Amino acid sequence: MSAPFEERSGVVPCGTPWGRWYQTLEEVFIEVRVPPGTRAKDVSCSLRSRHISLSVCGQELLQGKLFDSTVTDEGTWTLEDRQLIRIVLMKTNRDAGNCWTSLLENEYAADPWVQDQMQRKLTLERFQRENPGFDFSGAEISGNYSKGGPDFSSLVK
């Protein structure tokens, strides 16, 4: 089986003071840099449908209302190499038109160029799912791709 679309095509990250976040059609990934040597017992992470909070050694790093809803039971966090916390959130709305413009409602917004690239990526990912025999990972897209691009579902095959 081939690698997932985002592994073949790369990611479009949005940088933040604490790390970065990026998204696919189904998931939002958050990568938080923490002091080297951090242990799992130093981490406190709460993932709810519309809220996230993360603190390390009692210091709050990330807290607030998420841009959109997620599936609470499927959110996970891991500590990698004792210096990076990776959080994976499963989007409730997995439509290509659901491109988060920011991680939290009023914080960590993608700049307009990054937002445009994220939307392009989600539209290509949608095309890949709709056409499993083709590889869109290196494709370029132009024109109307906002809100998930054109809808071809009503066309007769």
UniProtKB/TrEMBL annotation:
Give the UniProt subcellular location, in the record's own words.
Answer: Chromosome, Centromere, Kinetochore; Cytoplasm, Cytoskeleton, Microtubule organizing center, Centrosome; Cytoplasm, Cytoskeleton, Spindle pole
Q: Which InterPro entries match?
A: CS_dom, HSP20-like_chaperone, NudC_fam, p23_NUDCD2
**Any one GO biological process:** protein folding
Q: Which residues form the CS domain?
A: 14-104
Recorded superkingdom: Eukaryota
A single GO molecular function term of this UniProt record: unfolded protein binding
Q: Keyword Cytoplasm on this protein?
A: yes
Q: What does this protein do?
A: May regulate the LIS1/dynein pathway by stabilizing LIS1 with Hsp90 chaperone.
Describe the subunit structure. Answer: Interacts with LIS1.
Protein name, please? NudC domain-containing protein 2
Species annotation:
Acrocephalus arundinaceus
Supply the source organism's classification: Eukaryota, Metazoa, Chordata, Craniata, Vertebrata
Q: Which gene encodes it?
A: Nudcd2
